[in-house]
Amino acid sequence: MADIIRISFMEQINVSTVRTFIEELERCNTENPDCTDLYITISSPGGDVELAIELYNFIRSLNCKVTTINLSYVNSAAIIVYLSGEERLCFPASSFFVHSITKRMNKDYTISELLREVKEMKANTEKVSSLLESQTFKDKSYWKKMMGRGEVIGADKSIQLGLVNRIIDSI
Questions:
Q1: Whole-model pTM?
Q2: In a domain, 52, yes or no
Q3: Considering the domain boundaries, does residue 75 fall inside one?
Q4: Taking the alpha carbons of 9, 14, 16, 22 in that order, is the dihedral positive or negative?
Q5: What is the CATH number of the domain that holds 90?
Q6: Which end of the chain is more exposed for a tag (fewer CB within 10 A), N or C?
């Protein structure tokens, strides 16, 4: 009999929520060493790109089949976490929001500090667009253009792009 774990991520992506979620996944893995299927239900406004990549890599390293499910909305950096699923599902009214990498500025910056921030934003744009390219039907340039203009993607279009494998009516 297959061991199945169901877990939810319904938070903004930040240090606290990612650490807590990784700890929860580790606990589930310890308590269920024979787990064959992990279902992660996601509804998130997004957050920190680097932490989303860390969570993506952690989930991909698990020794079970991972299915991610967009419960309502998966926005911004949360799309990276969503892409960790081998199978990716959503509901008919689910949506995804893709946009440019942004940086909150909370202090005065020198020119070199600003240039360092711009360099980091460009690097994160490359990481995200490369990840989208590797997990969907569209290339990096397509995703960069979409990120640049910002777009909400509905369920039907997400299937066409290869972001989602299947639209479901229930879990």
A1: 0.94
A2: yes
A3: yes
A4: positive
A5: 3.90.226.10
A6: N
